C-alpha cells in the first residue's frame, strides 16, 4: 500500500504528534524539529506524518492541522512554532497551497500557515516521543493536548483510529466518574 509523507508545524510538537497519531490512515508520526529551504532555514517544532492517501487525503490532513492550532494569529513564539505545511514534492506544494487558499477564502480570513519545501528533520529525545499516548495523565497532556483531541473528535469523529479512541475515552470516562 502506497504511503506518503508531509510535515506540519504550528504549535507544540507534542500536541501536533498527538493529533496526527490519532488518525486512521496515518502510519507513523515523527516528532522533532523541521527546517525548510531558505528563507525559513531555522528549525522549528514539527512532525512528519506518514499516511496512506487511500485512507486519508492530504486535504483532510491540512484541514485538521488548521483546525487544531492557531493558524490565523501571529505571536512572539512563531519562530519556535512556525505555522507551516512542509512539502516533499512540487505537486504536494501546489496541492497544499490550493487547500490553504480555499480554507482562507471559506473562512474569510488570512491564514499565516505557509507551504514550505522540507529541508531537514531532527528527531526529539526518545523520552518525549509519543508524548500523549505514553502518559495521557500528565498535566500538559490534560490541559493542552486533550482539548485539541476533543476538538478533533467533534469535527472528525470517523477519522480517529480505534486504538486511540480507547485511550481518549478511558480518560474522559475516568474524569466523569471522579
Detailed description of the structure:
It is a single chain. This protein is α+β, with helices and mostly antiparallel strands and 178 residues long. The protein has helices at 13-21, 58-67, 90-106, 131-134, 139-155, 162-177; strands at 4-9, 26-36, 44-51, 84-87, 114-123. It contains 6 helices and 5 strands; from the N terminus they run E-H-E-E-H-E-H-E-H-H-H. A hairpin with a 7-residue loop joins strand 2 (26-36) and strand 3 (44-51). The model is unreliable at 172-178 (pLDDT under 50).
Provide the fold topology:
Blueprint: E1 4-9, H1 13-21, E2 26-36, E3 44-51, H2 58-67, E4 84-87, H3 90-106, E5 114-123, H4 131-134, H5 139-155, H6 162-177
Parallel strand pairs: 4-5
Antiparallel strand pairs: 1-3, 1-4, 2-3, 2-5
Helix pairs in contact: 1-5, 2-3
What can be said about the biggest beta sheet? 5 strands, mixed, barrel
Percent in helix:
40-55%
Name the poorly predicted regions.
172-178
The H-and-E topology, N to C, reads as EHEEHEHEHHH
Query: What is the β-strand count?
Result: 5
